[in-house]
Amino acid sequence: MIQVYKTNVYQINPKYQIVSMRFKSKSLLLTLTLIILVFSMNQTQAQAYNLNLGFTNLGGNSVLFSSYQGKWLFVEWFWTQCHFCIQQHPDLEKLNNAITGNFTMVSLAGSRDTLTTIKDFKAQHITSWVMGLDKSDAFAKKFGITGTPTMILFDPNGYLVKSWNGLTDFNTLYNYISPLVQGKVSYTTLTNNYVGNPGTPPSVLGALFSNPIIQAGIGGSILVGLYLFINRKPNSESIPQPEKKGKEKSLKPKI
Fold this sequence. Notes:
By secondary structure, this protein is an alpha+beta fold. It has helices at 14-45, 83-98, 115-124, 138-142, 170-181, 204-209, 212-230; strands at residues 5-8, 54-57, 62-64, 72-78, 103-109, 130-133, 150-154, 160-165, 248-251.
């Protein structure tokens, strides 16, 4: 007896497999791009202030450096009995008056002084900016300060940009700080907190690559490039031709 078996042989069209893979890749890349952009925007808008220290002002109140977030901060570490600090202050007064806008100055004395000695110093020497006391010398310890006067410039996010050790003239300070405050030059922050590091000159590339928005743009460009690579048009020769659907085969066993 002859038995005839009929089966429908179908093959999934490779074109649909490719479309499915492309759709999944596209969705994944778009999701990753959105995550990077949102993360970078949040980092830019809510970046934590790096200088997490404080001091006591002449009114006896505690002040956190984070209250100066968004401003260029110039901090002088001094001692009221330091002869060079006394010589430095007229130039600092000129600096405070010459640089306007997004800039503030603070002079800090350490444990060798008291609020009273600082007030007496302020009364004897013209000082139109904020002065305060760091009883625990935390600021000096954090930045490895070993002498006075020592001056440090911080960017609006509290990162160390430049330091000056010893008596420094007005022109040197002004010519470096003023263009930064006015946004005329780019800069890089120092990873070494010790002020023995003489500082890093302004760098365009360093400022660009340290910017979260630029980083997000680079990441997005990489993802777009990957997307274009995945979705490139394959050669027509490499796509196998699908078999016709619904073709019936009769399988006859041999007698």
